[in-house]
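Chain A, query sequence.
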Amino acid sequence: MNSSQADTGLRQGRFTTIENGTVFRILDFHPGVQQRVHRTDSIDYIVVMSGEIDMELEIGVEVHLKAGDVMVQRGTVHNWINRGKVSCVMAVILIHANSVQVGDQKLGPFG
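Chain A, predicted structure.
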């Protein structure tokens, strides 16, 4: 909301999406970063600015990304793994979306 005077950077859960909004952040994944398997309720646009990283999906498939690569992530369960020797810096834009729905089951965000 443009007319608000609140500093939304101070809100709780600043690493989650904002309902009907967007979040932009720069992430720095150091080598050997701790595992964090998660799913978001967003469509994520990811641009690798430097370094390399693997995105591991819950089905065991891995996608290797390097500087200049772009990925669109749509509500899958995933984990970021930096097996390299330098940090991987990514620009990430999260756009709020409805949670994944399979039949009558809603697969909401976690992690």
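The two ends are 27 Å apart (CA to CA). The beta strands are 22-29, 42-50, 52-57, 62-66, 70-74, 78-81, 88-96, 100-102, 105-107.
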